[in-house]
């Protein structure tokens, strides 16, 4: 029978052992902390332990202080599905009235009368109203000293599993934006997405990386190749593997269905947007690309996209569907397996996942230690 032996050490031996242990633990913690951080062509995957930011991001504002949605006051057909999608996914959204081109007033805006008169806006396209609506949301962030805000356009759509998708994004964005050294203002509250980001472009139709640093996350909600969507080039296999989502330092982007902006990012954007002479999304992209002090982070595949409906905003104003006649048929945003807008009514009626409508009938799972796409009926077998 085994009999344990207890060894007693002198005070000097104990102190020496204690110091050695501390040094070992410190070195080990550094290795574990940074081993998932990708530099050059190295890529990082989600790990088993839960980063502290993940639980914070699972709140009603996805870890940001506020979520704002920009909606024209007379667009009840846009407002109602947006609110239903938010309620179905336990997200708290504050709706801000957007404005039309003809209602733009320069009082309090960043632009001069000469700027307005000299710009060749095509009335009716909505570009000017869109630009001013977004800048007003930045002004709100600055004037109310909001630490961060997620800003959505009125047609934004997202997956029902949005909190699961966003929760690991905190560490991913932190590893990208705070590298190599964060410059955090101690007067600002800490963010689960790190301390040094200005803009996180979460909803786009193409966001191109700057450099070769990527942080990769296994994500079962990521669309397979035939459901990915972009106006630009799809990132290659050398930086993005199937079934994963990546965060990276962003060069430029197109479309802005959803993005997060920090307080200091809003301050910078309001200053730089005075120079713009183009539509809102391209103006924001140019600012990220041309100003070296802007810390913009891109995500691929995009987390938010744009839905379609029977009352698309391109229809003439006199043909818009009023709020009381809100259309039931909603086209899901591309890249989303379980569109929040499409499935909102089912979820709010208490129907389970087996009654939700998927856009594709497969998911990502570990099969023989390989991250693979499997059919729904194979998912449980693969997970064994």
Concise account of the structure shown:
The protein has 384 residues and is of the alpha+beta class. The chain is built from 11 helices and 14 strands. The strands form 4 sheets. The protein has an 8-stranded mixed beta sheet, with helices on both faces. Strands 4-10 form a two-stranded antiparallel ribbon. Strands 11-12 form a two-stranded antiparallel sheet.
Word description of this protein:
α3 (76-88) crosses α10 and α5 crosses α8. This protein has helices at 11-34, 52-57, 76-88, 113-118, 127-143, 162-166, 169-177, 263-272, 280-290, 340-348, 376-383; strands at residues 66-71, 94-97, 148-153, 156-158, 199-203, 207-218, 244-253, 258-262, 296-300, 304-306, 308-309, 330-331, 362-367, 370-375. By secondary structure, the protein is an alpha+beta fold. The strands form four sheets. The chain has an eight-stranded mixed β-sheet with strand order 2-1-3-8-5-9-7-6, sandwiched between helices. It has eleven helices and 14 strands. It is 31% helix and 20% strand.
Number of strands: 14
Q: In one word, what is the shape?
A: globular
Main beta sheet strand tally, sense and closure = 8 strands, mixed
| Proportion of beta-strand residues | 15-25%
Helix-residue proportion: 25-40%
- In round numbers, the mean pLDDT is 79
Query: Which structural category fits the helices and strands?
Result: alpha+beta
* Radius of gyration over C-alpha positions, nearest whole angstrom: 24 Å
Tally of alpha and pi helices: 11
Strand order of the largest sheet: 2-1-3-8-5-9-7-6
Enumerate the spans where pLDDT stays under 50 for 5 or more consecutive residues: 1-19, 25-49, 312-326, 380-384
CA-CA gap between termini: 38 Å
Instruction: Give the H and E element order.
Output: HHEHEHHEEHHEEEEHHEEEEHEEH
């Amino acid at each position: 029978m085994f009999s344990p032996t207890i060894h007693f050490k002198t005070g000097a031996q104990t102190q020496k052992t204690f110091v050695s242990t501390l040094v070992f633990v410190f070195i080990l913690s550094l290795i574990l902390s940074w081993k998932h951080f990708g530099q050059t062509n190295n890529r990082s995957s989600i790990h088993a332990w839960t980063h502290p930011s993940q639980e914070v991001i699972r709140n009603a504002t996805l870890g940001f202080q506020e979520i704002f949605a920009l909606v024209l006051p007379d667009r009840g057909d846009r407002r109602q599905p947006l609110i239903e999608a938010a309620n179905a996914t336990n997200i708290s959204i504050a709706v801000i009235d957007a404005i039309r081109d003809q209602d733009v007033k320069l009082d309090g805006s960043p632009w001069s009368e000469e700027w307005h008169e000299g710009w060749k806006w095509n009335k009716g396209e909505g570009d000017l109203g869109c630009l001013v609506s977004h800048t007003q949301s930045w002004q709100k962030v600055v004037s109310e000293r909001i630490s961060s805000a997620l800003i959505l356009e009125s047609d934004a759509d997202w997956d029902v599993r949005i909190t699961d998708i966003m929760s690991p994004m905190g560490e991913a964005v932190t590893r990208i934006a705070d590298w190599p050294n964060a410059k955090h203002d101690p007067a600002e509250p800490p963010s689960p997405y790190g301390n040094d980001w200005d803009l996180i472009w979460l909803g786009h139709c193409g966001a191109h990386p700057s450099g070769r640093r990527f942080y990769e996350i296994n994500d079962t909600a990521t669309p397979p190749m035939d459901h990915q969507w972009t106006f630009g080039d799809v990132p290659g296999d050398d930086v993005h593997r199937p079934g994963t989502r990546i965060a990276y330092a962003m060069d430029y982007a197109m479309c802005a269905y959803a993005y997060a902006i920090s307080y200091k990012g809003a301050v910078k954007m309001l200053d730089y947007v005075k120079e713009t002479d183009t539509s809102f999304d391209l103006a924001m992209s140019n600012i990220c690309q041309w100003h070296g002090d802007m810390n913009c982070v891109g995500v691929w595949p995009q987390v938010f996209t744009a839905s379609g409906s029977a009352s698309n905003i391109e229809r003439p104003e006199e043909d818009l569907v009023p709020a009381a006649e809100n259309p039931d048929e909603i086209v899901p945003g591309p890249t989303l397996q379980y569109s929040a807008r499409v499935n909102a009514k089912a979820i709010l009626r208490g129907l389970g996942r087996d009654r939700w409508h998927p856009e594709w009938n497969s998911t990502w799972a570990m099969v023989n230690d390989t991250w693979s796409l499997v059919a729904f009926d194979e998912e449980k077998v693969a997970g064994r």
